[in-house]
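Problem: given the chain below (204 residues), write out its structure.
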Amino acid sequence: MMLVSRHLGLQPYEPIWQAMQRFTDTRKPETADEIWFLQHFPVYTQGMAGKPEHILNPGDVPVVAIDRGGQVTYHGPGQLVGYVMLDVARRQLAPRQLVSLLEKALIELLSFWKIEAYARQDAPGIYIENRKIASLGLRIRRNASYHGLALNIDMDLAPFYGINPCGFKDIAMTQLKEFVPDISLQQVEYLLSSILMKELGNAY
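Solution.
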């Protein structure tokens, strides 16, 4: 079963979101699965369960209401986003299994730099020392997934103070640069791509 990895650079949010929807709505049983890796220009995205009170002070950053699960988060340059567009029925993956697979991939990635990271059942995402470094949010439609993960690498974290990230008031954010000062986003992107291609190659 074919899995395609695409590397799209820095992109505005809404056209990519619309492209994910089109890909999902027009895919056929034989369509190859894809993972898109990219960064976004600054944007807050509010999930379907999002509550307005979690958007505290957005300033000049646009807020886009979208169709993934979860609450509000922030995307910006220096954050690696991975959108996983999989035929989950074909791969026999339940939503929770796919979330666990993404969590495992991120934990494996961070272990490359000897960083101990972990997932939390009460607050989805990946954490280091009680600080959140990655967010997860998916949508399943027509037996296929889209949206995915966002990993903070080397970015301006200040916009996270304009929201309650993922609806939690007391979650502090962190990024990989704090642990690996000379980190390269491209290095992380290709390493995560390799891990996900391996994990999803085994996900049948």
